[in-house]
Model the fold of this input.
Amino acid sequence: MGEKAINKHRIHYLLWVLYPELNPQLILSPTHRDLNLLVTIVSDFLEERFAEIPRRSEIKTFLSQPNKFGWDVKRKLLWLGRHSYLFRNNFRNYVEDRGGKPEIPIIDDFVCQQTTPWSGLGVIDILAETLNVSKEQRSTLRSWYERHVAYYRVLAVKGSTIEALNIINDKPYVIRLPHNTDQFEVG
Done:
């Protein structure tokens, strides 16, 4: 028989590292008997619950979609940082510590710069290794940590996209906006 769908060691590690996110005042030994009991109960429950569920992964399907544009990668980065089980509690706590409103600068700070206490890795690190991209593209994605303010010259406005030139590094960008590109003028 192949590898079991539920790995008790992974459940143990997950529960141990999530406890401080759920209750920051609790210091819990990884060998605590209550944690070990909980791991057994949760693992057995999940093994029974998931026994009949197909092994197809919608997350894998989502992450396997083409990465033709930067916004395709950014969409995956935002999902991973805000909604995946790896980061959602860290994200919630991060937003709560900064006033409780998930505004764009706060979201961007989290997904581009914060690391997790359970592994020391950030959202960008995990995504860079998960995506099927070239070594050069992986390196570019990892450079998203190096954020800076820049000014852009609008070269063209086409529907929901803007072609712009970063006047700091002289690189062209295509920017997709979900709405209202009419506020931008060429030049």
Q: What stands out?
A: The radius of gyration is 21 Å.
